[in-house]
Predict the 3D structure of the following.
Amino acid sequence: MAVDAPVPLTRRARRRAGSRKKAAWVVAYGCGVVLPLALAARTPAAPDRGIADELGSALGIIALALLGLQLVVPARLRAVTGVLGADVAVRLHRRLADVTFAAIGAHVAVVALAKPARLLFLLFFGAPWRAQAAVASTVALALLVGSSVWRGRLQIPYALWRAVHIALGAAALLLAAVHTVGVHGYLTHGWAAVWLAVFVSGSVTALVELRILKPRRLALDAYVVQAVVPEAGGATTIRLQAKGHTGRSFRPGQFAWLKLADDPTSLAEHPFSYSSSAVTPARPSFTIKAYDGFSRRVAELEPGTDVVLDGPHGSYWPARDATGHVLIAGGIGITPSISLLRTAADLGDRRPYLLVYANRTEADIVLAEELAGLAVRLDLTVVHVLSAPSEDWTGERGRICKELLERHLPADLRGYEFFVCASPAAVATSVDALAAAGVAPEYIHVEDFEHV
């Protein structure tokens, strides 16, 4: 039975609510970093400590707090995803990795500057155990960052990389905590010691919640594969049916993590955008292109297979008072746009839609026939762009560029919202073109490809 799709907020209300929530979250995050410093300041300093020692301790406390928060931010906790969205939380996690690593490097440099003899501790063997813990923590974090940056070059399988990433992150935090206790510094006295115990255990608990407890709860409300449909361009659509429940409501443009239900705690889970209409949450579908790992196995799934769905996630949803929508997609990046268009058609939306859709050849256009049908049901203009078209192709040729967008964008963009999901180059080009056309950044939602 179909249910009503979630009613989106007006753009002004959404901006106000989003700004308040994000401001509160930034304050909370800042407090998470500053609080241990404030508690440490209540502990009297040793008389023989100089400015460099004090600065080194402060940097170490900041680094420890950042390291623990790196486990919490991507853990899909409602307190985070409900404010930022899981997609934004993951991007924030990636960007803060550099800040965390820099804070650790600064801590080591300043501590060594205070007493150069401490550089001998880097030799590890023969060093005090507290120094060995610090070195091991830093090495674990360096391996974590390196394996993430060079995962593609090293050809590390996705599930193995996730396992290594989690293990190294937890090891880096626990070893840093061991080092902190061994140094017997500011965080081992009074309320600061309480903070250390609660903070470290809370960070590890967030990891356990994400990887063990939550998957087991979600497995109780699994979905069953109803159909597996091959699509153009090497893509496959899997159509699901909620199993013993009414399904979880989602908004077009959102995504979910999928995994097989036979092992709900497996690390082999992958994020995919919903491609179905939000009006029928009990029957979600996902259109997935085969790259490697799970995405390559999708075409082999048998109807009747149980699937665990962790979603919806994502910070985008269309505003109720937008006067129109411009959708820019490349290849399999059509999935969030097709969800938005299917939902609009089911709701009888008569606002104007423009879809600029880039592919290599005509044979690569995913859901081409349905797009043609939606152009009849909606006030929808579809502009296909092919980079390697046949000789008789009469549409746009080449790649998405500023000049192409200028030819097709509406003359009056006031009140429009924009959704871009394509390769990084196409995303950058589209965002620059929209900015040049006077579109404010808050009206442009962007998603990059992630091959999993």
Observations:
- The chain has three domains: 11-217, 223-313, 324-448.
